[in-house]
Structure formats: C-alpha cells, structure tokens
Design brief:
This protein is of the alpha/beta class. It contains ten helices and eleven strands. A five-stranded parallel β-sheet has the order 2-1-3-4-5, with helices on both faces. The termini are far apart.
C-alpha cells in the first residue's frame, strides 16, 4: 500500500473528484482543497509528499500559492506539479520561476499524470534519503557535526534577524574511555547508541540532537528559555544514568547557552556552552575525589 500523501488544490469540484479518484485507486492518500488559502492553512498543520496545483483560482492564484509554499518548503523537500489547462510558454516559465517542479495538462491521459506523480515522489524520496545520509552520524543515528554547525548557524541568524529564541545544551559523556579500555570499543559503541536512544525518547520533536565528535553532543531547543534547557538537561542526565553497559554506568557534564545572551556570533555562543560544560566537568571530578 502506497503511504504517500498528495494535496490537490483546485476550485473545480469536478477536477478534484476526478483526480482524487484516480490517485486513490493506486493507493495514494489524497487531500482535496478548494482554494489556495485552504491549502496553505493545511500545510501549516501537516506535511504532504506532493502538491497538485491549479493556476486559475479566485483570490490566490496558483503562482502565488506556489511562491508561498516555497517560502516554507525547498524544491527538493516538496514537489509541486501544476495541473492546469494553461500550457502557453509564459505560464510555464512563470510557474517554474515560482518554484514548480513540473507541469501536467488537465487534458493529458491519466497514465501521464500518474507517471509524473510517481517520478517526482520517487525523486523526492531519493533526495531525502541522500540528505539524511549526509546529515546523520553513522554510529548513533543522530545528526552529525556538519549538520550541527549548519543548524546552529541557521538558528543564530534567525535569532538575530527575527528575535527567535533558542537554547543550546552541550554535553560530554563521563565513562566512555573506561568502558572502551575495559570491554573494548564495541561496548563503547553500544553505550553511545544507548545514550542517544534514551535522550531521543525524552526530547521534543522540535529538539535536535547532534553528535559533535567522540563523546560530545549538542542539543538545540527552539523556543526554550535557559531554565527550560536546564530542566531538559537534568532529565536527560537522569535517563542516561540508567544506561548500564555490563557493570558500568555513565553520566555527563553539560553547559547551556541561550540566544538572548547577546553573543557576537555563533562561535562565541558555542564556546560559552563548551566552557560551561568543562566547568561542570571540573566540579564533578572534584566531587568524585572528595568522596574517595
């Protein structure tokens, strides 16, 4: 059963019903919208895999709707096919400039529409797969350092321009070297994967977890103040303490930085969180020595 969702946007009830029936018969999940406004509202709430869009609609025409969708979704994130009776060169050119992926005539036979839809969904799925590979840490399955630096740069710029608030948690595991030395790197790898899995279950869908290298990790928490980030870090620490590899447990030291603290650039923000983390680590080592 095909699981992809397709949004059809057309003010013609007849076209909506005909296209919906065609796509539903081959297993696609189809959402009909009678206007561009309805389509944009729907995309604010839910994700789809492809949009079929008419050009001639009252109020917002297809070109305007396409431009607005592209402000939120990149070309390789969401294919948009104009399903239209307008096939003149000016309309086609304007459509591609607005961010369209393809054009299909309403007079085309059903097999052509199905073939175009299938091609663009397969292409989008492949691009998504390749992007995930390039952004993911092979060992743990969380995001990698490259994506971490890109995301931090993006959030920092957004914060400076629009006042969007976010917090950063930077943490370093304690105990990985002991496990590697005592039981080998396979046990250490298991520990890293177990820590990531435990933290992922706790984090919100909007939070992003990155492995920055070795046993160091970063979490970006959108719309979170410093106190909220501290609570999140403490909760992660509790679930990580429950991870046991043979007879060894693990903990971590962490530092927090918040976008409201007027850092001159993202490197300064990252350095601040990193410095706080090492201060935390020193205190943990000092406390451990006192217990001995």
């Amino acid at each position: 059963m095909v699981e992809e969702k397709i949004l059809i946007v057309d003010d013609s009830v007849e076209v909506l019903e005909k296209t919906q029936n065609l796509l539903s018969q081959v297993g696609y999940s189809v959402i009909p919208c009678h206007s561009g406004e309805d389509a944009l509202e729907f995309l604010d709430r839910e994700r789809v895999d492809l949009v079929l869009l008419d050009i001639n609609m009252p109020s917002l025409n297809g070109f305007e709707v396409c431009l607005r969708i592209r402000q939120k979704f990149a070309l390789d994130d969401l294919p948009i096919i104009f399903l239209t009776s307008r096939e003149d060169s000016d309309s086609v050119t304007k459509g591609f400039h607005a961010g369209a992926s393809d054009f299909v005539s309403k007079s085309a036979i059903s097999d052509i529409l199905l073939a175009r839809v299938n091609v663009h969904i397969r292409l989008s799925r492949t691009l998504s797969f390749l992007r995930d590979i390039s952004l993911t840490d092979d060992l743990t399955g969380c995001y990698n350092r490259r994506h971490g630096m890109y995301s931090l740069r993006e959030w920092f710029a957004r914060s400076k321009r629009y006042g969007t608030q976010f917090s950063m948690i930077y943490f370093d595991l304690n105990g990985l070297k002991v496990i590697n030395d005592k039981y080998g790197h396979q046990a250490g790898d298991l520990l890293l994967r177990s820590v990531v899995n435990a933290c992922k279950k706790l984090l919100r869908e909007s939070d992003m977890l990155f492995r920055m290298g070795g046993d160091e990790f970063m979490v970006l928490c959108p719309d979170t103040d410093k106190r909220g980030a501290f609570i999140c870090a403490e909760r992660m620490l509790e679930v990580v303490k429950a991870v046991t590899i043979v007879d060894c447990t693990v903990s971590f030291a962490f530092g927090i930085a918040h976008s409201s603290e007027d850092y001159k650039d993202m490197d300064e923000m990252l350095h601040s969180a990193d410095s706080s983390m090492y201060e935390c680590k020193k205190k943990m080592h000092a406390a451990a020595k006192e217990k001995k």
